[in-house]
Amino acid sequence: MQQHESLKEHYKFTQEEALILQTLQPKMSALADKFIDEFYDYIWGFGSTAKFLKNQKIIDYHRTKIKAWFINLFCGKYDLHYFTYLYKIGEIHVRIGLPTHYVNSAFTFVRTFIIKNIEKNSKDEIQRLKEIEAVEKIVDINLDTLTSSYREEELSKFLSLSKFEKTVLSGLKKFNSYINFFLAGSLALVAFFAIGLFVYDIYLLFFTDIGIEKGILTVLGSLLVLWAAIELIHEEINHLQGKGFAIGAFIMLAMAALIRKVLIYSLSSEKGNELLVIGVVIVALAVSYWLVNVKNRVSI
Question: What is the pTM of this model?
Answer without folding.
Answer: 0.52
